[in-house]
Every structure is written in structure tokens, then in C-alpha cells.
């Protein structure tokens, strides 16, 4: 009698446990992670005068799966910044429709003395100049020329006795042969017309230059039209479209899943029907094990 009673109690306990645990155990792997990306990528980047920035940009509050890996924004002292080839730029303006960034080297915004004696080399796979610009060459560690040269400055350079510096227009200008280091810095061309002294030159550098980011916007448009949120497939290194109920990383749209405002609720239905049948399967499997001698 007792032997018959035992499995019945176990069955009841198992069913009861499965009913309670099933929604907790089965829901997160199916929809939780993907919903998480959808939610996270809905957060917009705001910093100073830049507001409402989303894909293809990521930031502290928009994790890496929300933007292109080369377009990570930060916010310092109410100014947006971006790292390009390990050099920090201030983002002065951002036109998401035209895909144009106006950037200026952060290290050269105050004066020509910088620790980062590096050329302004952008990632040309991702960026291109968006408007006319001109190269300036900043020369460091030069001997004092003893004559008046426009755009002359004084900066210490590590390990070099000569402290004089000059700015020349263009690249490969005549003075460069006398100096230890030179860096090329682009500036916006139209504003170059009026510069006459170093202070104005510095203002010019601080005003930056415009680059276009070459990220295909077509896929994102399709994704948004289907009520998805644009993002980045970090492992696949490609565009991803996140939907409110599931990942659509394989396609660019959240087709068929969301129709109308009730969509986000009805889309949970498949998950709900999966859970009981799965737990029923577990119960059946456990019962089979119990019946074995
Ligand atoms: C932000 O402000 C602090 C204090 O004024 C300064 O030390 C720091 O260099 C600033 N950072 C940037 C990126 O301008
Ligand atoms: C920057 O580029 C110029 C020519 O384009 C080159 O002569 C110079 O050595 C480079 N400077 C650095 C620091 O790499
Ligand atoms: C600026 O300098 C780079 C090399 O540092 C060169 O490739 C580019 O053509 C120059 N642009 C202009 C407008 O002179
Ligand atoms: C240059 O200066 C002239 C007169 O001083 C002014 O009319 C013009 O708008 C200035 N150009 C730029 C690009 O600032």
C-alpha cells in the first residue's frame, strides 16, 4: 500500500514544483536576454548640446551591442568625446541624418603642447572627410630660429632639449627637416581664411573638422520600420536588429511578431505555451525514472 502511495505524492510534488519553477526557469533563456538588448538600446545618449543620440553610437549607458565598435561616445565635463585610433576627440556636433560628426582633437584644444605627439589618423574604413579641410603641420623640438616666424610656440618635448615649435600649412613643409617631431592636424578649410596669429590658429584647431561615418543606414531603417531597435552583433561583427520579444539578428526586421500596440503582449504567448509542455515533459521523464526498479 505504501509503495503505491509514494509515487503519487512524488508526482504531485513534481507537478507542483514544475508549475512553480517552469515560468522562472524557462522564461529568461527564451526571451530575457534579447529583451534586455532591446531595452538597453532604447536608452539615448545625451551630453551637453548633443541629445537623443542612438545607433550607430554606443556609450556607457548604451552597451557595445547598441552601436558600431568604432563609434563609442563618452561624456566628460558636459562635452561628448570619441576615441579614434587611440586619440581622443571632442565631438562638437553630430548630425545623425547626414551621418556627419564635427570633431576636434581634445589634446590640442587649449594650446599646441601635447603629450600625444601623434598624427591625426582616422580609421578610413569608417570615416571620410565630409567637407573641405586643410592640413596643418605642428613641428616640435625645433631649434630656435632667431628670426620671426609666424605661429611660433614653446613646448617641452620629452628627452629633447629644443623647445621651439612652429606651425606650417600643408604637409612636408620646409621647416620639418629641422625638428624632431611633426604631427599633421586637419582643420576646416572655410574658417582658415581669417587666421593671422597662433591664438586664432588654436581657435581653428578647436573648431574642428567634419567627417562622415560610413555606416550603412539602410538596414537600420528597415529594422526601425518594423519597430525593432538597431544594434550590433558583437560576435558576428555585423548589424543586428533587436525586437521587443526576440532577437532578429539573422534578419533586419522584426517582421510578423509585432502588429499593433497589443503586439508586445501577444508576442509573449508562444513562451507561455512552451513552458507547461516543457515542464510536462520533465515530469514525464522523472516519472519514467521513478518507475524503473
Ligand atoms: C574636465 O574638468 C576637469 C576640472 O575642470 C579637468 O581637470 C579635466 O581635464 C576636464 N576634462 C576634459 C576632458 O576636458
Ligand atoms: C606624421 O606624418 C608626417 C607625414 O605625413 C610624418 O613625416 C611624421 O613623421 C608623422 N609624425 C608622427 C609622430 O608619426
Ligand atoms: C593631408 O595630409 C594627408 C597625409 O598626412 C594627405 O593624405 C592628404 O591628402 C592631405 N590633404 C590635403 C587636403 O592636403
Ligand atoms: C573673415 O573676415 C571677414 C571680415 O573680417 C568676414 O566678413 C568673414 O565672414 C570672415 N570669414 C570667416 C570664414 O570667418
From TrEMBL:
Compartments annotated for it: namely: Membrane
Q: Where does the secretion signal sit in this chain? A: 1-32
- What are its GO cellular component terms? membrane
UniProt entry keywords in alphabetical sequence: Glycoprotein, Signal
- Looking at the record, the residues that make up the Wall-associated receptor kinase galacturonan-binding domain are 46-105
Give the chief site where it resides: membrane
Top-level taxon of the source organism: Eukaryota
Tell me the Pfam families matching this sequence. GUB_WAK_bind (PF13947), WAK_assoc (PF14380)
Does the keyword Glycoprotein belong to this entry? Answer: yes
Q: Which residues form the Wall-associated receptor kinase C-terminal domain?
A: 176-246
**What membrane topology is given?**
Single-pass membrane protein
- Look up the EC number in the record and give it: 2.7.11.1
InterPro entries associated with the record: WAK_assoc_C (IPR032872), WAK_GUB (IPR025287)
What is this protein called in UniProt? non-specific serine/threonine protein kinase
Question: Which chemical reaction does it catalyze?
Answer: L-seryl-[protein] + ATP = O-phospho-L-seryl-[protein] + ADP + H(+); L-threonyl-[protein] + ATP = O-phospho-L-threonyl-[protein] + ADP + H(+)
Molecular functions (GO terms): polysaccharide binding; protein serine/threonine kinase activity
Amino acid at each position: 500500500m505504501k509503495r503505491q502511495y509514494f509515487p503519487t505524492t512524488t508526482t504531485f510534488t513534481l507537478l507542483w514544483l514544475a508549475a512553480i519553477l517552469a515560468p522562472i526557469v524557462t522564461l529568461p533563456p527564451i526571451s530575457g536576454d534579447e529583451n534586455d538588448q532591446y531595452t538597453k538600446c532604447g536608452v539615448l545618449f545625451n551630453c551637453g548640446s548633443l541629445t537623443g543620440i542612438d545607433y550607430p553610437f554606443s556609450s556607457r549607458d548604451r552597451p557595445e551591442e547598441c552601436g558600431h565598435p568604432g563609434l563609442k561616445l563618452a561624456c566628460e565635463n558636459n562635452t561628448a568625446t570619441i576615441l579614434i585610433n587611440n586619440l581622443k576627440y571632442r565631438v562638437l556636433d553630430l548630425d545623425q541624418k547626414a551621418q556627419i560628426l564635427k570633431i576636434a582633437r581634445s589634446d590640442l584644444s587649449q594650446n599646441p603642447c601635447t603629450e600625444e605627439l601623434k598624427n591625426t589618423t582616422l580609421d578610413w574604413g569608417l570615416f571620410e572627410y565630409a567637407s573641405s579641410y586643410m592640413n596643418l603641420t605642428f613641428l616640435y623640438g625645433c631649434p630656435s630660429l632667431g628670426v620671426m616666424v609666424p605661429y611660433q610656440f614653446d613646448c617641452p618635448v620629452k628627452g629633447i632639449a629644443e623647445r621651439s615649435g612652429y606651425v606650417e600649412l600643408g604637409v612636408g613643409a620646409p621647416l620639418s627637416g629641422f625638428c624632431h617631431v611633426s604631427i599633421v592636424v586637419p582643420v576646416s578649410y572655410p574658417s582658415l581664411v581669417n587666421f593671422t596669429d597662433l591664438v586664432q590658429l588654436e581657435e581653428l584647431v578647436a573648431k574642428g573638422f567634419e567627417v562622415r561615418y560610413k555606416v550603412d543606414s539602410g538596414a537600420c531603417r528597415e529594422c526601425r520600420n518594423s519597430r525593432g531597435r538597431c544594434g550590433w552583433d558583437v560576435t558576428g561583427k555585423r548589424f543586428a536588429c533587436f525586437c521587443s520579444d526576440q532577437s532578429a539578428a539573422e534578419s533586419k526586421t522584426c517582421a510578423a511578431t509585432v502588429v499593433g500596440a497589443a503586439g508586445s503582449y501577444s508576442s509573449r504567448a508562444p513562451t507561455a505555451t512552451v513552458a507547461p509542455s516543457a515542464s510536462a515533459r520533465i515530469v514525464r521523464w522523472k516519472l519514467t525514472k521513478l518507475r524503473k526498479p
